[in-house]
Every structure is written in C-alpha cells, then in structure tokens.
Specification:
Length: 275
C-alpha cells in the first residue's frame, strides 16, 4: 500500500551516527562553530550500499528497515493537498543561516507544518542532487527537503522536486550564498527569503504522502513524508553552482513494498551462507 497511516516510532536513533537529513533536530543537535565532516558519503565504501557496515549498531535500519526512503512514487498517487495539511514559513527579511554540511548545504529558519491537527516546527531545509525521489521512474535534477520536528520528537519531511527552468526566486536567494561556503562547516547568510509563493505552490499542487525514513544514516523510520506533486524550477547556472559544491548526494530508491533491497542482494545471500 502506498500510504501508511500508522507511523512507526522513532526508536532506533543513535546520536553518534552523523547524517544530514535530521541535522538540527533534538536527535542530532547542531554543532557549535560549524558542522564536522560527515561519517558517511555517496561513493564507494562510504556510499549508501555500505552505510550499514560503517556502523552496524547505529545504521541497522539502512540494511534491514522495510519502510525506507526515498522511493519511486506512482504519479497516480498524487492527491489534492487537504486543507488540514499546510506549511507556514515566515519571511526572513535579513536572510537565514546557510551552512555547508559536507554532504549538503542547509538553511536554518523558522516555520510550521500542520498535518491533520499535528503541529511540527521547521528545523532546516537542505538539498539533494539529483533528486532522491522519482515519479513513475523519472528523476529530477534537484530536490529540497524541509525537515520538521514535533513536540513528541517525530520527524516530518516536506520535499519538492526541482526541474530545470526559470530560477525560482526563493531558490535563487539561497543559491546566491554558495560561493561563500566552499568548505564543510563554512556558514553564511542567504539573501532575504520569502516563502509566500512556496506555501501557495504546496497548497495548490497536490501531494504524495507515505511513511518512510531518513534518507541518510541512521535511516531511522517513522518519518512522515509529503512530496509536492509539482516541481519547482532552477536555472542552469543555479543547478551548476549547487552540483559543483555538493556533487552527488542521493540515496538509491528503496523498494516500497516492505522489504529492504539489501536483504535481497546477492552479497547478502553470500554473507548468509558464510556466516
Ligand atoms: C527564528 O525565530 C527566533 C525566535 O523568535 C528568532 O530569534 C530568529 O531570528 C528567527 N530566525 C529567522 C531566520 O527568522
Ligand atoms: C571555511 O572553512 C575552511 C576550512 O575549515 C576554513 O579554513 C575557513 O576559514 C572557513 N571560512 C570561513 C569564512 O569561515
């Protein structure tokens, strides 16, 4: 089933495992004086196929979780955004903090997600290139994730796919800061941010919703995912600027039918025979 209304509890979060998807939440507080280099990556032995082996206790769900993200969503699952589902992000007239986390860049600003009566606070938003989610098998050049946390510590992520086209002014105001943060831990400010158009886009474009996980270690489940059905757009210069800095940082799409792909991989079967 595509939409899983029952969210699993976020019970297996290990603070020692660094990831960027939940950076700034109570589960992984922001570091004073800039982020340290992450303990995982996207290539070779640091990459998503091996996240479990980097820390078998903390990252167990990366290999064994059965409600993992990202996924390939079915375009037909797009539903009109209900009035009980909304984002409210106040303008940041003086800009907001933009930090290079090594595997992505994130912006910390305030905001709220209301979902069926539950309120969550915006912690940060960050970028992936290319997109992590696909729609009917199609990937996009970028994806932005707005990470929210509720008082009960549960995490919700609102994602927007990003296609090539005219530069969205909000994205432009963020990407303008990239030249000032070339190294991990570098911090600058964005240009003034206005989220009015984004709130309207979210309300009017329909959404995909499912229960999944963090897309970075420790791959914790119980994450409530909402993807806007309609992509935002970025121009070629903006796309080049962000891929030059954060390179490739997308986890492979998971099976959304309750199995972990790694448990079905040839390697896992070989290991099972050896052990
Ligand atoms: C977020 O809210 C806090 C507390 O009200 C405020 O100090 C801060 O400036 C706000 N951040 C932004 C980017 O507007
Ligand atoms: C950016 O990070 C580098 C490497 O840690 C450091 O040498 C440099 O001083 C930082 N620049 C700023 C403006 O913080």
């Amino acid at each position: 089933m595509f939409f899983q209304p029952t969210l699993l509890l976020l019970s297996l979060i290990a603070p020692a495992a660094l990831g960027h998807e939940h950076y700034g939440t109570t589960l992984y507080p922001r570091a004073e004086g800039g982020a340290a280099a992450p303990k995982f990556g996207y290539h070779g032995l640091d990459g998503p196929l091996n996240w479990y082996s980097l820390d078998k206790d903390a990252n167990e769900l990366c290999a064994k979780g059965t409600h993992q993200s990202p996924i390939n969503v079915a375009g037909s699952a797009c539903a009109a955004t209900p009035s009980s589902l909304s984002i409210k992000i106040p303008a940041a007239p003086h800009g907001a903090e933009l930090e290079n986390l090594g595997t992505t860049v994130d912006v910390t600003t305030n905001g709220t997600l209301l979902n069926a009566g539950k309120k969550s606070d915006l912690v940060q938003f960050h970028f992936h290139t290319p997109s992590e989610h696909a729609v009917d098998g199609k990937y996009y050049p970028m994806e932005v994730h707005f990470v929210f946390q509720a008082a009960d510590a549960s995490i919700s992520v609102v994602g927007f796919l990003i296609e090539l086209g005219p530069l969205d002014p909000l994205l432009g105001a963020v990407l303008a800061g990239l030249p000032y943060i070339p190294f991990t831990g570098n911090v600058t400010h964005t240009k003034p941010l206005d989220f009015t158009a984004l709130e309207k886009h979210f309300a009017s474009s329909g959404t995909y919703q499912y229960a999944g996980s963090l897309t970075t270690p420790p791959c914790s489940e119980g994450v409530s995912w909402t993807l806007s059905c309609k992509p935002l757009s970025v121009d070629v210069a903006g796309y080049e600027a962000i891929t030059d800095l954060i390179k490739f940082n997308a986890r492979y799409t998971q099976n959304n039918e309750g199995v972990n792909l790694l448990e079905h991989s040839a390697l896992e079967q070989v290991l099972a025979r050896i052990n």
